[in-house]
Amino acid sequence: MQTKIIYVLVSSLEDIYYEQCLVSVYSLRKYHKDAEVVVLVDDATAASLTGNRSLLATLATEIKVIDTPIEYTSLQRSRVIKTSIRKHVSGDFMFIDTDTVICAPLDDIDNIEADLAIVPDFHVSFAEYPFRGYMLSEMYHLFGQDVSHVVDYFNSGVIYAKDTEMVHRFFEQWNENWTYSAIEKNNPKDQPALLKTDADAGQVIRVLDGKYNCQIAASIRYLYSAKILHFFNARFFAHNNIHPFYSSDFYLRVRNEGFTHEIDEMINNVRMLFDAYSTPISRPEFEYLSSPEGHIMMALREKCGWKWSVMSIILKIFRRIS
């Protein structure tokens, strides 16, 4: 595989981002022993990669330190590096978020023809995006821009990028838009800035096959063919127990135990670790669970104990009457 694999890591002893990145790179090395893997870090993270946080340096080809503004928060440092990857790395690359597991060979990314390719967020077009209304409002608030004409809103968890002039210009503009959003509007998320950049450039991002960024919280469509599982969180997973990789407990085990035989087998069989009670839900059910009223009802069920039981009985009576 000639395409470089890039990670961005900003982490301290107080979080699990290092362990997430370690697991992702460890899983990648199962299929690609010789791939060039570059981890971009800030100064503080680099200084922390000692002792029991030194294994990543042996798995990666290079740990590259990137200067970031000292006044930035850790989240801002992470995103300023991410939106400027192209100027720090030569050659074609695939960026992969740390909260991922590689579960199949990636050799065929060398054959991707697009200059810039990303998987749509939630694996749907922007017209079908469950949070389309919110994003339209957010984009107008952040940038004063109507993006209702845009075809796709992309998930930046996996990005394929060639080393071309167009891609360099795109990343420069993405970084500029992100900086405005983060500093002037206090919104450090990188995907709204990505959406603006793509819209302004004439929608130059091409759709990457969903198997390279299987977003389990959104869809199981690509689970069978997935090459990269992306475990970004969803607020309606009350206990994160749908899969152990959604829980910090797994990554704390990696921190404290290392890659034991049991943990290694969990990584090998990552597709099969979903809780037996993990029923797929339809779009209306998803939209309800993601809504404010859905969040409230889940919180009530979690916190109210016997009061919830009484409420449940009352609701059942109303359902029968209706």
Automatic annotation (TrEMBL):
Source organism superkingdom: Bacteria
InterPro entries: Nucleotide-diphossugar_trans
SUPFAM superfamilies per record: Nucleotide-diphospho-sugar transferases
Protein name according to UniProt: Glycosyl transferase
Lineage of the organism: Bacteria, Pseudomonadati, Bacteroidota, Bacteroidia, Bacteroidales
